[in-house]
From TrEMBL:
UniProt xrefs under SUPFAM superfamilies: RNA-binding domain, RBD
Protein name in UniProt: Cytoplasmic polyadenylation element binding protein 4a
CDD domains assigned to the protein according to its UniProt record, in alphabetical order: Bbox1, RRM1_CPEB2_like, RRM2_CPEB2_like
RRM domain residues: 98-185, 206-284
Location within or outside the cell: Cytoplasm
Length: 355
């Protein structure tokens, strides 16, 4: 029996650190603006967080999706909103992404009919992968995204849903199918970050990039999986896009010790298993773009930031071009491949050519 349930949730009072303030900014020791405001205490280059808090610390990069290719997504013009949390009686009000996944749609439902089915909740735009290129009137894979103009529309949609086995459903009709339950999957912004051990400092040099994270996976679940596999997890974050705050398919995990970090990057690939999710994802070191060369401290490159990071466990250092060539001409290191930042966020391997 499917029955309508009233959903209430509790909130913690921890003030969310803005997505725009990345870990890189924190590592530059801009302590004055943070002390006493967000509960951060700086210890050298590290960052400490209170237990049970949430924090948007890491800038994120694009990666592969989990059955939801968003390369055809289009944003609504003028719908960008600041990532802030209103207060109600001193407690943070729960917030959702304005982008909502809807799956299991009738095969003959078109864009206008989808819009009509959800228009009562507010102004919206219907999108699906490769929509602009395909010119299709129907979502080809039976799912679509609802991009609402106002966040309050998402809460109204949730309130109208029926709940079964922890999933939300709403009945939608098409020309040939009447009242078909379709799955509604909103993204709770609180699920983007999880601090597992607030007593441990966050060190970007013990942080991994996880590519291909399934979009339904929450930060707490990513943290639990990685902690079960390698131990020592103190933080996990899910990459969300800057406008709609919806998962992009990548994440970050910070460890409290070098042993767990090395074990994770040595694996290169990890099988994420949680509930209905079972996917192999890629693991790489998290690469910063404002680090001096660990060999020369910038003396051989005019103080410029190091462009290369060596992810081999015998190195795990940042190098300028001069020091990379010098160190990696040695026997046993000539086959190491440098990692660089791609698109300002995502690390990628490059081929290094000797002059």
């Amino acid at each position: 029996i499917i029955k309508l349930t009233c959903k209430t949730r509790s909130f913690d009072g921890f003030s969310m650190h803005s997505l725009e303030n990345s870990l890189i900014d924190i590592m530059r020791a801009e302590q004055d603006s943070l002390k006493g405001r967000y509960g951060f205490s700086h210890q050298g280059g590290d960052v400490s967080l209170p237990m049970n808090g949430h924090s948007n610390l890491f800038p994120m990069g694009d990666e592969h999706s989990f059955g939801e290719d968003e390369s055809g997504d289009q944003g609504l013009p003028g719908l960008g909103s600041a990532h802030c949390f209103p207060q109600l009686n001193g407690e943070r009000v729960e917030r959702y992404s304005r982008k909502v996944f809807v799956g299991g749609l009738p095969p003959d439902i078109d864009e206008d009919e989808i819009t009509a089915s959800f228009r009562r909740f507010g102004h919206l735009f219907v999108d699906w992968p490769h929509k602009a290129e395909s010119k299709s009137y129907f979502p080809p894979k039976g799912y679509a995204f609802l991009l609402f103009q106002d966040e309050s529309s998402v809460q109204d949609l949730i309130d109208a849903c029926i709940e079964e086995d922890g999933k939300l459903y709403l009945c939608v009709s098409s020309p040939t199918i009447k009242d078909k339950p379709v799955q509604i999957r909103p993204w709770n912004l609180n699920d983007s970050d999880f601090v597992m051990d607030g007593s441990q400092p966050l060190d970007p040099r013990k942080t991994i990039f996880v590519g291909g994270v399934p979009r339904p996976l929450r930060a707490v679940e990513l943290a639990m999986i990685m902690d079960r596999l390698y131990g020592g997890v103190c933080y996990a974050g899910i990459d969300t896009d800057p406008e709609l705050k919806y998962p992009k398919g990548a994440g970050r995990v910070a460890f409290s010790n070098q042993q767990s970090y090395i074990a994770a990057i040595s694996a290169r690939f990890v099988q994420l298993q949680h509930g209905e999710i079972d996917k192999r994802v890629e693991v790489k070191p998290y690469v910063l773009d404002d680090q001096l060369c660990d060999e020369c401290q910038g003396t051989r490159c005019g103080g410029k930031f190091a462009p290369f990071f060596c992810a081999n466990v015998t190195c795990l250092q940042y190098y300028c071009e001069y020091c990379w060539a010098a160190i990696h001409s040695r026997a046993g290191r000539e086959f190491h491949k440098p990692l660089v930042k791609e698109g300002g966020d995502r690390p990628r391997h490059i081929s290094f050519r000797w002059n």
